[in-house]
Specification:
- It contains 3 helices and 4 strands; from the N terminus they run βαβαβαβ.
- Strand 3, helix 3 and strand 4 form a beta-alpha-beta unit.
- The chain is globular, with a radius of gyration of 12 Å.
Length: 91
C-alpha cells in the first residue's frame, strides 16, 4: 500500500490494530498536513518501523491486540527514539 505523503508535514507513525480506524487516521493526518510514514498493527511492528522511518510523532492505540502494549511502545518511542506520542485508550 502506498503511504500518503505531504511535502510540508511532520512524519507520523500510526499504531492501531483496527485497520479501518488506521486508514481513517491516515487520511485525517494527511489532510491536516502530516506525512504518514507507516501504519503499524502491533507494538512489535511499530518498533521495527520506527527504527527505519524515524517518525516525529506517533498516534498510539493503548489497547493493541487485546492487551496494553500501546503504553510500552509509547514509552519506548519517547525514551529511545525521542518520538512524541499521543495515546488513545478508548474502546
Amino acid at each position: 500500500m502506498t503511504r500518503l505523503t505531504s511535502p510540508h508535514g511532520r512524519r507520523v507513525l500510526i499504531i492501531e490494530d483496527e485497520f479501518l480506524i488506521a486508514l481513517d487516521l491516515e487520511t485525517t493526518m494527511f489532510n491536516i498536513g502530516f506525512e504518514v510514514c507507516a501504519l503499524a498493527p502491533s507494538a512489535y511492528k511499530a518498533r521495527s518501523l520506527a527504527m527505519n522511518d524515524q517518525p516525529d510523532v506517533a498516534l498510539v492505540d493503548v489497547c493493541l491486540e487485546g492487551g496494553r502494549e500501546g503504553i510500552e511502545i509509547a514509552r519506548w518511542l519517547r525514551e529511545v527514539r525521542g518520538t512524541d506520542c499521543i495515546c488513545n485508550g478508548a474502546k
